[in-house]
Amino acid sequence: MRLKRQATMFKDVAVESLTLSIELFNRPSGVAREHAIIMLLAHSFEMLLKSIIFQARGTVRDKGEALSHSLNRCIDIAVDSIKVVRPDERTLLLAIKQDRDCATHDLIAMSEDLLWVHMRGGITIFTRLLKDEFGEELTDLLPGRVIPVSAAPPTDLAALVEGELAAIAKLLEPGRRRAAEAGARLRPFLSLDGSVTGRSDQPTEAEVAAAEKQLRGGDGLADGVSWASSVEHWLRFAGRRCAGGRSAHWEGRGCHPGSTCRPR
Hints:
Elements: H1 5-26, H2 33-57, H3 71-81, H4 87-105, H5 112-134, H6 138-141, H7 157-171, H8 179-196, H9 205-216, H10 224-238, E1 241-244, E2 247-250
Helix pairs in contact: 1-2, 2-3, 2-4, 2-5, 3-4, 4-5, 4-8, 5-10, 7-8, 7-10, 8-9, 8-10
InterPro entries: DUF3644
Domain DUF3644: 14-151
Protein name: DUF3644 domain-containing protein
């Protein structure tokens, strides 16, 4: 397929932003890591979707609009109009968009497990779109060794959610004066939860305050069930952990020929 010049430029920038996001994920320094990863991951999707839209329509502007499409508008067009993004993928992209807004305009904090889930889920969607729409493999553009790795990837969904909420509840204990940190860690969960209902705006302060109140009351962990379902949605894209061959690894990456890989 012959790509239009501007579509090629958008696609190249998308890959560059994803590359930087992956580099930040894998680097040992934690300086500005979470905010920068999410901002670049969201930018990579905005550029990739604009590439696809420009190739299909010859423009990334609505009639009468002076500015190009926002990420939210790109997602809507990709799902509802040109139908290259699947409805379940919309949920994940909206969560990334909300997290980007939080990282840009507010404070956001993620545990290593939750950040890993975001990156793996995002890369799965990016890889599919690149393959389906342009016939290109991400592994041809990036060495396989740079794909996000973790010394201890999450394997237990319930433990991930309960651990996060328990840590946030501890920050909210009387006398600790760490409500700002608790709010920063709650926002990614609220973004995930909101994206399932189709919300595209970042969580409001009222929503953060309501979640904090639930956790302070001691009954917030019960509400982790709904958040767990949102995280589980991400994990379907992040992949399943296998226990076969010579070592544990993530399905599709490291499965050895002839091994009896099975989900953990």
